[in-house]
Specification:
260 residues, alpha+beta, HIT family, subunit A, ten-stranded antiparallel sheet, globular
Length: 260
């Protein structure tokens, strides 16, 4: 089986601060005066080089989403969410277009089951000079039942999930409106964290680029099925229609539109 096998520096990794579980650990992203290797800013949104470059041979960067440590995307104003996504996509595309990397990953970890270590909302960019981009994703994973379409952006529930449960896809056309895309990301995160499952306290956002277009997957995170970990078996849950109807009622109904 062809795989991307990348080295990981466990010694450096053991030095990374962790304050999702160990809440008494101070937050390195709150102390902005102590940040180094800052590359760009937009108000309180900050792009900087990752101090803990644990992935061998890769260039790692962090986007601090704002000054507040205990908020997250559902709490942001529309204006802040729009600026954040535009900022992130701009720098992601800039790295892709630089020609330095075979692949550039753009993603977010949030919560104790997301694979992250810092509570403060942030996103990451990782550039890989040597990686097989054809092994990163399949376009089939963005097939789904349509929830909403606006301004060249489609939101759907995956019918070919990467892992299993409640995966939401955002599929923009090349001329799609980025502010609508940001709105759909915010809606997806709000739904996952507040309505999807009362036990859900973690999620990931993954951006994918290929064949001149890009895709986004918002994935609720639970303890991962051993059938996926051990045997690569994906689950197609039987509640996808219900998720479509819930999201439409919560975020896209006429009564909600009139109230906003």
């Amino acid at each position: 089986m062809d795989i991307n096998l990348i080295g990981f520096d466990v010694t450096l990794g053991s030095q990374k601060p962790e304050n999702i579980i160990n809440k008494e650990t101070s937050c390195p992203f709150c102390n902005t005066d102590q940040l180094t290797d800052i590359i760009d800013t937009d108000g309180d949104i900050i792009l900087l080089r990752n101090k803990y470059n644990v992935i061998e041979g890769a260039d790692q960067f962090v986007i601090i989403e704002g000054h507040s440590c205990q908020t997250d995307m559902p709490d942001y104003t529309a204006e802040h969410m729009h600026r954040l996504i535009r900022f992130g996509i701009y720098h992601w595309k800039r790295m892709i277009d630089s020609g330095k990397y075979k692949a550039v990953l753009f993603f977010k970890n949030f919560g104790p089951l997301s694979g992250g270590t810092i509570r403060h909302p942030h996103m990451q960019l990782v550039g890989f000079p040597h990686l097989n981009p054809d092994l990163l994703f399949s376009e089939r994973e963005f097939d789904g039942l349509t929830i909403a379409e606006r301004n060249g952006v489609t939101l759907n529930v995956s019918t070919c999930p990467r892992v299993g449960f409640g995966e939401l896809n955002i599929v923009p056309r090349p001329d799609a409106d980025l502010d609508t895309l940001a709105d759909f990301i915010q809606i997806s995160v709000d739904y996952i964290m507040h309505y999807f499952n009362k036990r859900c306290n973690s999620y990931n956002i993954f951006f994918y680029h290929g064949k001149g277009r890009f895709y986004i997957k918002i994935m609720p995170r639970f303890a991962t099925s051993p059938l996926f970990i051990g045997y690569n078996i994906h689950f197609l849950p039987n509640n996808t229609e219900r998720i479509v109807q819930e999201l439409r009622k919560l975020y896209f109904s006429e009564s909600r539109s009139r109230s906003h």
